[in-house]
Design the sequence.
């Protein structure tokens, strides 16, 4: 719905600003004495004054758009309020009032302000066992990697589903841990990270058997979410998300079956990548529903996610680029209204930052998603996931009464007696939705809210947890069911609470999807919070 | 032309902000999730979030509007960029995007930022004799006042036209000073200030016989203008203006015949008051053109101007309030385009701050001023002023060849041979324009640029000086010819250069005119610049 030329103009304006292209900047500001540019405490009035100012200042600090709020009160008139992230960690705001003239969109008024980087809060660590199942001494490495390579110095939190030689897999369930034997081989995906120089800083918690999206764990407690205090991290990659958000790790390696990387990424304000199904080896990783299981990553710094993602992909093939970004009113409408608005601002920032056109699905062949279609793929996904989860862990659940919490047990048991015919029908439904999605993705990469809302409060009732999970599954299960890769960008804000924007690319386009990060993110983005690290502060 | 309801809405919004009236503030921001309020580095999205924020913050710092830039790109849509002055000396910016809905104007997007008070620059004093003809020892008092009363502690710079017991009057002309004898009585206007507690800190320079508007003086040099470095202070009250602008005095007492307070007020960013002709006693003050001569004031702090002005008026009668503010396209058009735009922003700030309606003269009975009308009153004023100036000082000029500079001498000589019939005709023209103005002022107080532009550069050519004077006289001579009072508000900015907004009230409405200051100015506004004051820093 947003005027395409307006987004294009905003993109070209950002390019001109980055390049300090004075002639172009002069062009984007409307001619005449009425044009106003306000910054800090004073306003410049008139095109000439503004131009003179720019010629004197010698360029603006590099900034990256994170949210662009576009309002178009009348045809040919628009206001954009852009929130930016600066390389120095500070944040910036830019309001522009645009008018469409004969020669195109022009800025008639602008207001710029900024804030320095917020002081990095030192966060009191929560109960350590809620985040970590096993940790290196004094916050140092539990297992050292090669120490050299692309990931040298990167501290990895490993979800407690992934084999690490000499360590057991706990899967968030104490009874499972008791019965586990130490792994004799590190999972290949994790091995690749260690070979590239990363260290394992600890084995971090997960929802029981990864079969939840909310990050609660009745046995170990719920990890603290420093990005949304008093709220859950989401899950099931809860421990790695908590560890990365607090700065105790740089990278989380975990699984995503139904959203288990995308959801904590959304709730904790982290970059998340779910690869194309099968693109990253899941050997040595405890399964949940093999048709959907993937091994992927979480990071606070986009550059870390990019480097680690490229390691997991191995030698990249072609780096695919999207023709456009797609937006679906139906999918946006699955989120809470404030979340939909917040994610839309993040999407607009992505469009302006990359210069990619923003198209509405309704205008493409095939048209908008229907509500029945969404319900169908969600139900089908649930059916197949539950059947496969029961196949993977049903016996353990049967043999160990009370080993998993009642809600998770109930979830497993929905898959116990599934008629194989129903499972086949569900797989057929998922194939259809995958075909439909693949056809759509030929027009551009599809964007949608990563979650239906921000992180729920820790004291939510069981019914509220279930509702939060149920409202998010329709959003996450589209990519899970189709096996396509997803990049989660942590740019949305509902108040101070993060919510993610998911970008879905065609199957196999992981390298291109990760490459988006090079176009939107500053190098050297700092952590938002720092946990005390006794082992490091002693040096 | 600006939508009256919009200005009213902006006024009521400011009132609500001042009173921290949360319900009213909630009303002014548009309902719904799309409303954005950005401040510092982040944006709040949605009416609810914005409302919650306001409820938490407990009020905003008191601010006063100085310039409001209104742009109305389409009917029912407007943007206001407001520059504000805070009581703590800091400055603020507020951009608001307005939409007219069924219920009235509402804010759909806002952006707020601020800057702390600029560090007070310590200005190297220029050649002392360019500003001061006589000064107290070590920057202290030259003559002490009563020391108690409304003006206790106020340091007054006295224009070198005003009698001070024991001191001579120099009138900017060394040959005049040589012939002068010490006054035996202090002029009543100055006496009133001293009685109210003020001290005379020095006798400050003037243009030769006050017969210029530019502040140049061939004998003593041109005082430095710290508000517009490298430019003139304007005149003829040049020394007091320079002294007040630099913080070496709190108050300037001077004369205004053709704009000699309003012009330096405009060029130096000072509040200026020219009283109703005859309202303040001119006894003991060297005349220039008695039909127009007034004694008035300059100050950096509006509160100082207000207190001192009330002293000069004596016991006030009724405090008249304007029904509206009037704007004339003809008079605005006499200023340079950038100055007209700047003064319009100051006028809009005045309208929003006071809540007074802003009416265009063209819409009132009598209609817009015509160009011939302006030319007529300017020419008539020049004729009468020159004739009276010659009557006052022609003999001195004749008897002291070379005592005044050629440009000033030429100006005097234009009055030498004036036919009394022409003078009478000119007086008749001025009476007509005074009647016309009086009729207009019944509808509201007339506003116009105080000068045609900001201060000229010090290295301007004689022709440029003459042009600057000639372009400003049509603006200043309207009030001079009609004898009505003028308040100069130093709020316009052309780049960093100040330009003043003049407000003309009906004859005798001085108390009401000064009372405007109570509605628009913070108490305790600090000086912009500080001259070294050895006498004070020693304590």
Sequence:
């Amino acid at each position: 719905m947003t005027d395409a030329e307006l987004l294009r103009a905003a993109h070209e304006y950002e390019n001109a600003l980055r390049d300090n292209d004075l002639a172009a900047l002069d062009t984007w500001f409307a001619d005449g004495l009425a044009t106003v540019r306000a910054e800090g405490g004073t306003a410049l009035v008139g095109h000439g004054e503004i131009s003179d100012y720019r010629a004197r200042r010698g360029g603006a600090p590099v900034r990256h758009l994170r949210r662009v709020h576009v309002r178009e009160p009348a045809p040919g008139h628009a206001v954009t309020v852009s929130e930016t992230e600066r390389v120095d960690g500070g944040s910036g705001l830019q309001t522009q009032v645009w008018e469409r003239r004969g020669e195109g969109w022009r800025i008639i008024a602008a207001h710029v302000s900024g804030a320095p980087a917020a002081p990095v809060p030192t966060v009191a660590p929560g109960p350590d066992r809620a985040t970590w199942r096993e940790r290196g001494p004094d916050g140092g490495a539990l297992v050292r990697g090669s120490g050299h390579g692309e990931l040298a110095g990167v501290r990895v939190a490993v979800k407690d589903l992934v084999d690490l030689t000499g360590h057991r897999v706990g899967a968030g369930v104490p009874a499972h841990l008791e019965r586990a034997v130490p792994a004799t081989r590190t999972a290949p995906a994790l091995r690749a990270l260690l070979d590239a120089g990363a260290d394992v800083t600890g084995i971090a918690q997960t929802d029981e058997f990864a079969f939840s999206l909310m990050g609660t764990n009745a046995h170990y407690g719920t990890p603290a979410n420093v990005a949304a205090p008093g709220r859950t991290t989401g899950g099931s990659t809860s421990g790695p998300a908590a560890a990365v958000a607090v700065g105790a790790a740089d990278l989380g390696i975990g699984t995503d079956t139904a959203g288990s990387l995308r959801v904590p990424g959304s709730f904790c304000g982290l970059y998340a990548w779910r690869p194309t199904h099968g693109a990253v080896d899941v050997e040595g990783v405890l399964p949940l529903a093999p048709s959907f299981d993937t091994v992927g990553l979480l990071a606070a710094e986009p550059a870390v996610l990019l480097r680690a993602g490229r390691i997991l992909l191995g030698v990249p093939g072609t780096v695919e680029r999207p023709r456009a970004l797609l937006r679906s009113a139906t999918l946006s409408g699955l989120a809470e209204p404030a979340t939909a608005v917040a994610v839309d601002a993040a999407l607009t920032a992505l469009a302006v930052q990359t210069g990619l056109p923003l198209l509405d699905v309704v205008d493409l062949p095939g048209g908008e998603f229907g509500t029945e279609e969404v319900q169908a793929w969600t139900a089908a996904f649930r059916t197949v996931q539950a059947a496969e989860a029961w196949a993977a862990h049903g016996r353990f659940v049967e043999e160990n009464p009370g080993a998993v919490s009642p809600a998770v047990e109930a979830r497993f048991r929905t898959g116990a007696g599934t008629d194989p015919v129903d499972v086949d029908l569900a797989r057929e439904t998922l194939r259809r939705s995958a075909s439909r999605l693949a056809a759509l993705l030929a027009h551009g990469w599809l964007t949608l809210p990563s979650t239906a809302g921000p992180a729920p409060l820790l004291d939510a009732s069981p019914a509220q947890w279930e509702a939060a999970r149920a409202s998010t599954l329709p959003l996450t299960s589209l990519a899970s069911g189709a096996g396509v890769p997803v990049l989660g960008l942590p740019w949305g804000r509902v108040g101070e609470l993060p919510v993610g924007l998911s970008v879905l690319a065609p199957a196999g386009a992981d390298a291109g999807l990760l490459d988006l990060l090079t176009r939107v993110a500053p190098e050297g983005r700092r952590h938002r919070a720092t946990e005390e690290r006794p082992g490091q502060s002693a040096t």
